[in-house]
């Protein structure tokens, strides 16, 4: 079976060091897939490779069975990819509504962009801050708006880099439900996250990176008991 996202044998070298060393992963529609590992393991670099911001030294990325390795970010977006960044990338002076509108106007439903925005405001419960400017928001809320921008493009593949950082317990719990519902609607959700409660609750499959290598993959209950993963990462969490 062809997975929605297939990443194989990706190597990225920075100044002689391998940030990624022949790493691969899969993400399926209808599932939340987690990518975990210690700081510096290469998670954000892998997202840059999948998103088309960084060309790998070796390796392939395919989305929906199409090899997109040579495509830039805009072309990958046409194949259904959307992402958020570890660093917030909102337009600070624009309102939350306008941040969402800019994204919706770039998406496939641009003719009904303001309706798409209304739906997202409803779905993410952003009514109370819709007219606030983005740079007034607490970080956790800003991340939620970034997810809103990603889903405004109606993606089939959503990459989320530490979206729950800065959220409190209740926000994180609701966020987990949101991720679940995006997958239930048919998207493939790929999540980088350090909050192990969220990861273990919401993910169907996990991939574990350490020093640029994929050291384990499987369902959360298997990963949680994996000796190599415990030694490299979970033992410290
Ligand atoms: P993670 O997201 O898992 O914390 P990163 O992908 O950010 O890890 O980083 C992986 C490794 O690559 C780290 O050793 C980091 O210092 C290095 N690295 C990341 N980006 C760059 C860059 N632009 N130039 C040089 N080294 C980088
Ligand atoms: Mg990172």
From TrEMBL:
InterPro entries xrefs: AAA+_ATPase, ABC_AA/LPS_Transport, ABC_transporter-like_ATP-bd, BCA_ABC_TP_C, P-loop_NTPase
Organism of derivation: Nocardia aurea
The name this protein goes by in its record: ABC transporter ATP-binding protein
CDD domains: ABC_Mj1267_LivG_branched (cd03219)
Alphabetized UniProt keyword annotations: ATP-binding, Nucleotide-binding, Transport
ABC transporter domain location: 5-236
Keyword Ubl conjugation in record: no
Molecular function per GO: ATP binding
